[in-house]
Amino acid sequence: MSEINLELNSIVMRFGGNQAVDHVSFRIVKPELIGMIGPNGAGKTTLTNVMSGMLKPTNGTIYLNGRRIDGHPPYDVVRAGLGRTFQITRALGRMTVLENMLVPGLAIRPRANRAEIEARAHEILDLLTIDHLTNELSRALSGGQRKLLELGRLLMLDPAVIILDEPFAGVHPRLQETIYSYIHRVHEDGKAIILISHNMGAVFELSQRLLVLNNGALIADGAPQAVKNDPAVIEAYLGEDE
Amino acid sequence: MALFQRFEAAIDAGIGRRRLGYALLALIIVYLLWFPNDTSQSNYAKTVFISGFFYAIMASSWALLAGIAGQFSFGHMAFMGIGAYVAGLVARDGLAFLTAESISSVGAIVIGTVVAGLVGLVIGMLLLRLRAAYLALFTIAFSELFRIVMLTEYDYTGGSNGLSLRPLLQIADVETARQVEYYLMFALLIVCLLAMYWVANSQVGLFLRAMREDEDAASALGVNVVRYKILVFVFTSMIVGLAGAIFYSDIGSERIIPEQLEVLQMSLIIAYAVIGGMESLIGAAAGAFISRYLLEATREVVITYPFGLTTADGSNAFVWEPGAWRYALFGFVMVLTLRFMRNGLLYPFITWFSGRDLVMKETVAKRESDEDHAARQGADDE
Fold first, then answer.
1. Domain tally for chain B?
2. Are B210 and B77 part of one and the same domain?
3. Using only C-alpha atoms, what is the Rg of chain B?
4. Cβ neighbours of B39 (radius 10 Å)
5. Alpha-carbon distance B74 to nearest alpha carbon in chain A (angstroms)
6. What residues in A contact B216, CB-CB < 8 Å?
7. B15 lies in the same domain as B143
8. In this complex, is the C-beta atom of B375 within 8 Å of any C-beta atom belonging to chain A?
9. Among A94, A108, A135, whose Cβ lies nearest the Cβ of B222?
10. Structure confidence at residue B381 as a pLDDT band (50, 70, 90)
11. Does the predicted model carry a pTM greater than 0.90?
12. CB contact under 8 A, A103 and B219
């Protein structure tokens, strides 16, 4: 089990006059399964982009296992141990599925034995039930298969903290089951997972802890049942009474 | 079609496509090695081949930069020009504490190559945040800037008359000189291609292709996109810098002129690479060589009438001098290539010889059976 200590301190992300993330702070110190929910425009994806290094926060700091990672480029953040998937999958289209897996494997362990990394890739593809597509160009994959490929690439990186941005969106129920078992397995491996999803059923079923964002601010952080009955959360989802 | 399938089956069962491909490649290389010894060929034909090799280096290195790494640069000719101009200037005027006499022509070429690499480093760094169209625009601006400076500073660069470089070879006999120049340029092409193949097939090549596909995704997967973007610019700049410095050291041409750096010339390089296949180094190289050859060969088209027929004015052949029309036709071919064979005219041959189409067929078959399977399962669910 790898060490986990992710710390967000008062993260602010402003685009012009729009405050997309508003002083968000939280810590993850154990391999938890954390759901992150919030209405559209709450700032979930923006926060993910800030955490993964795609955006430099306007203010605030992020530490991962003692290393400051805010404002660092994504490839540094990944090496520090934080990996993410994309809401809209980003397969490397004109590369084969295997190559898609080798890129992260070799990128973080450039001196490793290639055969070993390939063996690991085959193992993961097998686990994700897409091993028969190994030599296929990834652009030929279906939407659901691409989601699985993204999850596989994350495993090649072996990060301590994983952010899954809408892993169930537009996915066939059978593939959804594969993703479920993936999440459980990765969690049992001792990784912290932040699961962003509009699929409330899945979030409540899987999460041990829930973060709720609204208008860029973190309005609740706690056990799912407690959060569910939080008046602020109900208000955010159902709207204020006129 | 059936005949071809039988041929395919025979090849697959016998020597295998890859080996056949290598054999064909070996034959081409042997022919090119023998060519300058062919007494029936004129010196002019050899010159055409020499410039063919030069443009093959240009197109294939551009294919590495744009086709494999996805950096659609228009600055390639400018880097070539930097190599040539710097080599010429240091050989004439010296460099810092080095006098012109102390710099050999080889030394000048090395300095030209290194400077091209250094400028590649700076440009690569400036381009880090630019993508696609912005990168293309930036490199056009850089390229034009360089050309205009070379044109304007005529006291140093010779302006539109161009700059003579110190000749690399001192061979009095024209015949022998042509032969040596031919082999030198051919060797340079082979060395450059081998170096580029080594990069493209290494781990670095994998990362470059990942960057081409999606720079953000590559970065999120741990690829140091900054390092590889700069690296590919430095590497390709040095290759074309070297090629330019050698070619204009009286090997293929005796002087570098700013006209060579015009956007039109750069567009021709891109056209060669596109026609040959910009994602394949050998495809782009062959595309450039064949295009150069055809553009030269069609300066005057002579078609002799069959059966000894003559026209009323007594001529026995149809003669057409297409002039600039050759380029128009060439442009037309490029348009058709882009529309109907995006991977280049040579791509089908390359995939066939490499057996890549077999892998594709296999995976498509797998996917179809997979879909059948999923469809059946789906039907069961309902």
1. 2
2. yes
3. 24
4. 7
5. 23
6. 54, 74, 90
7. no
8. no
9. A108
10. very low
11. no
12. no
Which residues span the domain enclosing B102?
44-261
Residues of chain A in contact with residue B226, where contact means CB-CB under 8 angstroms, are 73
**Listed range (A86-95, B211-220, B222-231, B350-359) with the worst mean pLDDT:** B350-359
- Whole-angstrom distance, CA of residue A154 vs CA of residue A177: 18
In degrees rounded to 5, what are phi and psi of residue B303? -115, 110
Whether B64 and B23 map to the same domain: the answer is no
**Which residue in the block uniquely carries the two structure tokens 């024209």?**
B174
pLDDT band at B364 (very low <50, low <70, confident <90, very high): low
Q: What b/e string do you get for B259-297 counting C-beta neighbours within 10 Å, with b at 16 or more?
A: ebbeeebbebbbbbbbbbbbbbbbbbbbbbbbbbbebbe
Contact B222 A84 (CB under 8 A): no
Nearest CA in chain B to A129: B370
Local confidence band at B366 (pLDDT 50, 70, 90 cut-offs): low
Residues of B in contact with A157 (CB under 8 A): 221-222
ipTM entry: 0.90
Return all residues near A86 (Cβ < 8 A) that are at least 6 apart.
A150, A165, B217, B220
Report yes or no on B308 lying in a domain: no
B147 and B190 together in one domain: yes
Residue B64 in tokens = 């590495």
pLDDT of residue B107: 94
Which of the residues in chain A have pLDDT under 50?
241-242
Q: Are residues B35 and B48 in the same domain?
A: no
Provide residues of A within 8 Å CB-CB of chain B. 52-54, 73-75, 78-79, 83-84, 86, 90-95, 99, 102-104, 106-108, 110, 114, 132-133, 135-136, 140, 153, 157, 174
- Across the interface, of B210, B225, B366, the residue whose CB is closest to A132 is B366
Same domain membership, residue B58 and residue B22: no
Question: Does residue B380 surpass a pLDDT of 50?
Answer: no
Residues B29 and B49 in one domain: no
Residue B118, in any domain of the structure: yes
Q: Out of B215, B246, B261, pick the residue that ends a domain.
A: B261
B23 in the same domain as B94: no
A114 vs B354 pLDDT, higher one: A114
B190 vs B26: CA distance, rounded Å: 12
B220 vs A83: CB contact, 8 Å cut-off?
yes
For residue B17, what is the enclosing H or E element? Answer: helix B17-34
Q: In the prediction, which pLDDT does A102 show?
A: 95
